[in-house]
Queue: 3 jobs
Job 1
Amino acid sequence: MKYILCLVFIIAGSLSYGQSVSPDHYVILPFDTTVYTSLPQDCTQATLNNDDFANIDRVLSFCVNKYNRSQTTVYREIVKKLPDQDLRIDEYVIDLKRYYRQYIVVYNKRGEKEVWVNCFCNIQSLHNWREKAVIVMGGGNCFFNVRINLTRKSFSDFMVNGLA
């Protein structure tokens, strides 16, 4: 019985659709031309499959790691200049495990599948984040988004909010 239960947990874990983010931390929103995203207006709605989720994670991890390397350098330079300040590295870098995600998935005019990934680290005041795209001014690295071309496995328009 113990072995069957372990097998059930292993199988259940493998059916997470290639996502490293738990299902309660993401939502797929419909494409809406009235919502500001970096997606072109002439797109059509698309869906995600298991491979798409894995590719989103790979590309998202790549661009966040690139951003974090840059921000770590900035952090170290500021700490050298202002050693008496109470600065924390987590105010400069992104830890994907802390973020909620919104996906808007489309086919562009060339037929390539793209997804706008909108990420934010806190949902306390975002009661309708599962229904509407979260668009805020400021908030620093708690809010960022990126456009991922799943067909090409590339990204563009990576944007981290500034501090307000």
Note: The two ends are 56 Å apart (CA to CA).
Job 2
Amino acid sequence: MLFSIQTSLNISNYTDYMQRQVLICRHAEAVEHFSLRPDFERELTKSGVLQAHQTGHWIRDNFSKVDVIVTSPSKRTSATALILADKLYYDDQHIMYVPELYNAGEPKLLEALSSLPEKAKTILIIGHNPGITQLARHLLNKHIAYLEPANVLAIKLELEKWEDIHVNQGTLLLHNMQHIL
């Protein structure tokens, strides 16, 4: 007797399930670092506030929503995150402030991404150079220019779980950089 196994798995749904997007953003322009004020306390300049608003509009115009916003808790990244959240109609009470992301390198950024909830499909991570650019280079497996203030690039990843991000290469979807190479 021949058995037939019926499954409700639709291959196109499975592909959608595995597809995730990481929007990697450098904080907007901050005031210069002076020795009397700790780097962590640097605020956005007026130009930086405008940059963050423009970047928020760009993200909203190109992506319907983000599921999670993750940021360093420094003043400049927090301010950038709050402006972007407002432009994206994202509840700022749900922004994830991760102390380890302050001036973090690529390994810490990957660690933060690998612990994201599985239901999150599109995430926005806001951080500092050089780590944020190193993260983009790692995920794209190619050299790109350093992200300037308020630059963002979107990378598509085929991942079943965020914890697999360490061994995955993504595809560049979009960016707002003047020069990427």
Note: Confidence is low (pLDDT under 50) at residues 1-15.
Job 3
Amino acid sequence: MRMDVSQLVRTLRGIDPLAYGPATIGTLMRDVRIGLGEVEPFMSVRKGGYTRNLVYADAHFELMVLVWDQDATTAIHDHAGQHCWFTALSGTFDLQNYRRVSGGRAPGAARIAPAETLRGVSIGEPDYRHGDSDIHRVAVAPGCEQAISLHVYANPLATCLVFDEERGVCGLKQLKYDTVAVDRLAAINP
């Protein structure tokens, strides 16, 4: 289903992501096709890394566009008990999901183990993280020069735990946006 950014925001505002649950939002994220020109005003690029660019936020959810440079990889992280949907708008991703073995619900000792590897995740293949399956690492797939992803977090995510698998610990990370363009947000805020 082709829609622009403002239509997606209106759709999400109209259904409340938490009230409708993972399957409904997962289907929306699988089927949505947003042209790259639609998200270009929200994009910034960081050489060798990725950027978190806010498109919309309210008390129930936030919508972000992440722009990934070649070889960019996140730290192993959780989603702080929130619901997270991710879909590729362009490019290809590899996802490494983890499970908690012990600890890892607060900063301190945390043993995790790989649970599932998804390679070549592309447009139309959304990923959902929540509860006991909320830990993962996202990477741009080898050979992909740049990738762009769309993320819905319900409720908005201010912090997460970042895991050091070798040391067996995790720490709290304050999250920030790389870009927040108030004038762009106002244009899609009905």
Note: The chain has a mean pLDDT of 88.
